[in-house]
Amino acid sequence: MSLPLTRRGKGERKMETGRILRGHKGPYAKVCGRYIEMEDEEDSFKHERQNAYLYFQAMEGRWAVSNTVGASKCWMFAQVDMKAHNKSAVVSGWTYLDPVGRKWKKDPNVICEAWTRVKYRTPAGDKSSSRSMPRRKVTGASPMTPSVRAPETEADTHDQGRKDLKAVENSVQALIEENKNLREELNTLEKERHRRQTVATGEKSRLESENNALEAEVKDLTLRVEKLKAEADDADALAMHVQAMTSSLGLLQKQHDMLSQRALKLEEKALTMGAIDCESDAESI
Q1: 107 phi, psi to nearest 5 deg
Q2: Are 128 and 121 in contact (CB under 8 A)?
Q3: What is the mean pLDDT of residues 191-203?
Q4: Which residue has the higher pLDDT, 125 or 115?
Q5: CA 89 → CA 34, 46, 53, 77, 92, distances in Å?
Q6: 108 CB contacts (<8 Å, ≥6 apart)?
Q7: How far apart are the C-alpha atoms of 123 and 118, rounded to whole Å?
């Protein structure tokens, strides 16, 4: 929101307010940063670089961040204690939607800071200047826009400028520390990636060795199966040979029986003929 312009010597000054969202290092880290209050939307702020909005959802009683102002679906939110009649009374901290698995997760590191930007409009030919000044820190969600009172004298303006400069220096130092932490985290992640890659390489080698051993075992089993099949074929041939010999033996047995019967008949005939010859001899005597 822009406050009315006030005179500052030969120039004019305009006050703007907004929010700074910081602390999130997860999938929505890019939406952290400075949000500028929107004049046509109550309790709504637009990110100064990204297509992101910080706004208050009255029905749900929470602050939310998404790519559409006033949308019911959001990337992050912070619940507010509506009984306290204070939109800054956050009771649950910030929660974000993890894109992997689509589950809501808590992030206790997220904070909001109210800020004020002082813009000076000078006559043509002079450079305009602007300064940003944190107003107060709010953990969780940002409160309603605080009132801003412009300094009344030139000395107050210079004092305010020094305070603004100190606040900027603090912000730069905080960004340096955050960058250092991010570099350390990146280094840790790189080490973890290298460790996991080493483990994966070892696991791959082990699996390849096991696979080669299994392939050799399968080959050996295949040879044994083929040998058993050959032996089974030989057994079938032997069984057929035995069956043929058994059939031949049966035929021989039948022939033997027939010959035995013929022999008996010949013996009986011989005996009969012997008896006849004896009777003939007796008659001759």
Answers
A1: -135, 100
A2: yes
A3: 91
A4: 115
A5: 21, 22, 20, 13, 9
A6: 93, 94
A7: 17
